[in-house]
Specification:
This protein has 85 residues and is of the alpha+beta class. The chain is 26% helix and 25% strand. The chain has a four-stranded mixed β-sheet with strand order 3-2-1-4, with no helix packed on it. The longest helix is centred in the N-terminal third of the chain and has 22 residues, at 2-23.
Length: 85
C-alpha cells in the first residue's frame, strides 16, 4: 500500500511538472498547443493510444489521435513530455 501511494505521488508530481513546463511555452496570442508523445486515455472505452498527439485549442481538446494521424495546426505551440524527448 505504501509503495502504491509513492507511485501515485510520483505520477502526480510528473504531471504537475509537465503541466507547468507546457504552460510557459505558449504566448498570449497563441491559443493552440500540440502535446506530442504521451499515452492518450480518451475515456470513451477505447484502448489507450500510445504515442498520442493532443491538440488543445483555447483550453479545450480539439483532437486526440496517434502521432502522425493528426495534422498540427500551423503556428501551434508544441510540447513534448520530458520522458519522450
Amino acid at each position: 500500500m505504501r509503495r502504491m501511494m509513492r507511485v501515485i505521488w510520483l505520477a502526480l508530481a510528473a504531471v504537475a511538472a509537465w503541466s507547468a513546463h507546457a504552460a510557459g511555452q505558449g504566448t498570449a496570442g497563441n491559443r493552440v498547443t500540440a502535446y506530442q508523445g504521451p499515452r492518450g486515455i480518451v475515456g470513451d472505452g477505447r484502448a489507450p493510444l500510445e504515442n498520442a498527439t493532443f491538440i488543445v485549442d483555447g483550453g479545450r481538446f480539439a483532437r486526440v489521435a496517434r502521432t502522425g494521424e493528426v495534422p498540427i495546426p500551423q503556428g501551434a505551440a508544441r510540447s513534448t513530455p520530458p520522458a519522450t524527448r
